[in-house]
Write a structure and sequence with these properties.
- The chain is of the alpha+beta class.
- The protein has a single domain, classed as 2,3-Dihydroxybiphenyl 1,2-Dioxygenase, domain 1, CATH 3.10.180.10.
- Helices cover 19% and strands 37% of the residues.
- An 11-stranded mixed β-sheet has the order 4-3-8-9-10-7-1-6-5-2-11.
- It is globular.
- It starts with 14 loop residues before the first strand and ends with a strand.
- This is Glyoxalase.
- Pfam families: Glyoxalase_4.
- InterPro entries: Glyas_Bleomycin-R_OHBP_Dase (IPR029068).
Length: 178
């Protein structure tokens, strides 16, 4: 078991995220070939007080999220070219982009990131009560680690997605939210 004060010790990975060149083709691959779904589409996401490398940014992105058993699969589509964790030197296509760990206290994650000498690439608010940090522990592109302190209702939101996957019959492979 990893030490509690390390990045791995904060908690298990709950998500694998990808940055596909062709977002629609990736959705088709995951739903039709892999049988993962349904994907829930959240468009035009803007993190509150978002910073990239410490500087404010107005990055906007879309995600599609589904569950493959207990593992969340996220597909990310940038909606503009503003600095973010998926642009510049952190841009990768058609392979793993980042993993995600849900944390109860974002400051515990921040301390583990700082202790590891990792670079905070992006951080910002998720809703009114949530917070996210995307950090590079040194791997670079494809090795970002996301830490998210879920906003109120976030756990229930993910539970709804997981339940939909457990009972998915292949219909409505992509479901637009919000």
């Amino acid at each position: 078991m990893p030490k509690a004060n390390t990045i791995a010790g904060i908690g298990p990975i709950m998500q694998n995220a990808y940055l596909p060149k062709d977002f629609d083709a990736a959705l088709k691959y995951w739903t039709e070939t892999m049988g993962v779904g349904p994907f829930f589409l959240l468009e035009n996401i803007r993190l509150g007080d978002m910073k990239c490398m410490g500087e404010p940014t107005d990055a906007i992105f879309t995600v599609a999220i589904a569950y493959w058993n207990d593992m969340q699969i996220e597909l990310v589509r940038p909606d503009n070219d503003a600095p973010a964790h998926y642009t510049g030197k952190y841009k990768v296509h058609d392979r793993m982009h980042h993993t995600c760990q849900v944390v109860e206290d974002i400051e515990v994650a921040r301390k583990a990131v700082e202790d590891a000498g990792a670079t905070i690439v992006v951080e910002g608010k998720v809703g009114e009560t949530g917070y996210v940090i995307y950090a590079d522990p040194g791997f670079g592109a494809g090795g970002i680690v996301e830490f998210v302190q879920l906003a109120e209702g976030g756990a229930e939101f993910f539970a709804m997605m997981k339940d939909a996957a457990a009972n998915w019959d292949g219909s409505e492979p992509v479901r637009k939210l919000g």
